[in-house]
Amino acid sequence: MRRSLKAQFVLVTIFAFIFLAMVIGCGSNEKLETQISGSYQRTQGDGTVKINLDKNPISLVFEGKTYAATIDKVDKGQNSVHLKVATDNGASEEWVLHQIWNDNGSTFKLVFRHNGTQETLVSAGRS
Q: Does CATH place domain 30-125 in 3.90.550?
């Protein structure tokens, strides 16, 4: 009986250690804003979207225009960054960048919600 409890304790300890190692190993210390910053190819339509969230001034280059932005909210639980963007007509709109990782966690795409539309962006390299 005593040997059985000791074996169970060892197994539980090993599993707890493996779980902890996976959580620490899979987590990234890089800020979401830094991960998202870069150049992306539009999957609908032509062109690229350049996103700069990690250096001031924060901006997006979209359809040939540079838009000044401020970060309204970073939702780490949803892997989303909510931006307040100054548009051509002087109004402020909320644009959202939502990061979606692939199954093995090696790459991601972005869902870009703006002006009442949604499109998917894929990495074209870091800017």
A: no
